[in-house]
Specification:
Radius of gyration: 29 Å
Helix content: 25-40%
Structural class: alpha+beta
Strand content: 15-25%
CATH class of one domain: Alpha Beta
CATH architecture of one domain: 3-Layer(aba) Sandwich
CATH topology of one domain: Beta-lactamase
Length: 488
């Protein structure tokens, strides 16, 4: 009765109060019952990441934070305190101290053994620790300041035994760092896989220090997985493989490249000096753009479908790896197919290129590259006729530059392409690529190197990325890691 006798305003206020407390009550219940079981309370409960040889790549450790408590009188800070700060936290600026403030001096994985002044306090907490620091930073990622990326995304659910071999990761990092300093560019990336499609090492530069608790990286993407690029002359291998596969061309077929070759209104030229005629073998060895356009006129009917059969057009979208949309036309014109033949007109990820090359060499098309030790999923098989001849050409190119022990074969192809963003070319911005097949004791390993926006001339950029790749190959051969029986 009382409720009915109230006026409308009082009823609205009364109802609002009841609804307010009801929502608070339900949010508490909802949080406890539904969210809590799925959210880890702190870093202490996160799982460890291992490499394929059970070396720890990332784990949870106790971190000690040291704080300076400043009172009203700044001069009262004793000289012993200043000495302690200079000794253990040299990056901290004593001159910036103000009264009535609390400063974080720094963090440490161990408790300092020296006597700690009274006005310095210690707080203990759990944090993620990366033993190899920058070497694995872009692969493992971090958990900090609401930013989670890399393999760290999955450490709240399971222990991760990754496919990474930290020894190869170290060698790759050293080679890339040397090249990054020697040949100025915006970024450099590399990846190596085995025949199963397991990632043995992956490095992207510039990187960051995951153990620097005071900084959060600005760039958290891994370009090997998430970068989409036109691949330049590397694509020529796949175009020729397609023609050979469908018996439309043979390695010794001759093409007349003396005449002007056009795609629409664009005149196609060659960087290397060519004779009036060239075989398919010579076109690949000398990377002739004109020759590839003429080959495209023979194989244009099958090329888009062949690229699709190698999954060059497909996004990878599994638990650990997700790639962005790929720039590929389902119904390309003849002009576009011609550009497809020598590496322009469509863009894909480095991971897709590596996977396609592995498919050609092993006949097994693995669903996606594996970054965690797991049973590989064979999606399909593709048997290419005379693939050995095409790979032999690549090996001949390699033998001109790299001398290797008798039990190791090296096959490679370089490529250069203009930057393409959303189908539009960026003027004078060039990326260079280098794909390698290593054969050691009848086991194959697949490498991909990439240099973004080298500051040198576009037509010489690929020489630089090839040099970076050669340095890595020579270091890897000297280490004899790939010759081990357990490294499959």
């Amino acid at each position: 009765m009382l409720y009915r006798n109230r006026n409308i305003k009082e009823n609205i206020v009364f109802s609002s109060i009841i609804l307010f407390y009801f929502f608070i009550f339900m949010s508490i219940i909802f949080n406890k019952i539904i969210f809590k079981p799925f959210i880890k309370k702190n870093f202490q409960e996160l799982y460890t990441i291992y490499d394929r040889n059970n070396n720890i790549l990332c784990e949870t450790k106790i971190v000690y934070d040291y704080y300076l408590n400043v009172g009203k009188n700044i001069p009262s800070i004793k000289s012993s305190t200043k000495f302690f700060i200079k000794k253990h936290f040299p990056k901290f600026s004593i001159s910036s101290i103000k009264s009535n403030k609390v400063y974080l001096l720094g963090s440490s994985l161990y408790k300092l053994s020296s006597k700690i002044p009274k006005n310095i306090s210690i707080k203990k907490r759990f944090s993620r620790y990366h033993p190899y620091g920058k070497v694995t930073s872009t692969l493992l990622g971090i958990r900090r300041n609401n930013i989670i990326f890399g393999l760290e995304k999955f450490t709240d659910k399971e222990k991760i035994i990754s496919s990474i071999d930290i020894r190869i990761q170290n060698i790759l990092y050293k080679a890339l760092m040397k090249g990054y300093k020697q040949f100025p560019c915006e970024a450099v990336h590399a990846i190596i896989e085995n025949e199963k499609g397991e990632v043995l090492a992956i490095v992207s530069l510039p990187n960051f220090d995951p153990n620097d608790l005071n900084k959060t990286p600005k760039n958290t993407s891994n370009k090997i997985f998430q970068g989409v690029y036109e691949m330049g002359s590397i694509i020529k291998v796949f175009a020729i493989m397609g023609g050979v596969h469908y018996n439309l061309i043979k390695i010794n077929d001759i093409f007349d490249i003396s005449k002007t070759v056009k795609i629409g209104n664009f005149i196609i030229t060659d960087a290397n000096r060519m004779n009036n005629t060239a075989t398919v073998k010579e076109i690949l060895m000398k990377s002739s753009n004109k020759g590839m356009v003429l080959i495209a006129e023979v194989i244009y009917n099958i090329l888009p479908d062949f690229y699709k059969s190698l999954l060059l057009h497909k996004r990878i979208n599994n638990k650990y790896i997700k790639t962005p949309p790929i720039f590929f036309s389902n119904n390309p014109s003849l002009a576009l197919i011609k550009s497809y033949c020598f590496g322009y007109g469509f863009a894909t990820t480095p991971l897709n290129i590596l996977r396609a090359m592995r498919c050609i060499c092993t006949n097994n098309l693995i669903d996606s590259s594996i970054i965690k030790i797991d049973k590989p999923v064979i999606q399909d098989k593709i048997k290419i006729h005379d693939k050995e001849k095409v790979l032999k050409i690549m090996e001949n190119i390699a033998n001109q530059y790299i001398k290797t022990p008798y039990n190791i074969k090296v096959m490679f192809k370089t490529g250069t392409a203009r930057q393409n963003i959303n189908g539009k070319y960026i003027k004078n911005v060039v990326n260079t690529f280098f794909i390698v097949i290593l054969e050691v004791n009848n086991k194959k390993f697949f490498l991909f190197f990439m240099m973004e926006k080298p500051t040198n001339m576009p037509n010489t950029g690929f020489f630089n990325i090839k040099k970076v790749g050669e340095d890595f190959i020579n270091l890897l051969i000297k280490s004899k890691i790939l010759e081990e029986k357990n490294n499959k």
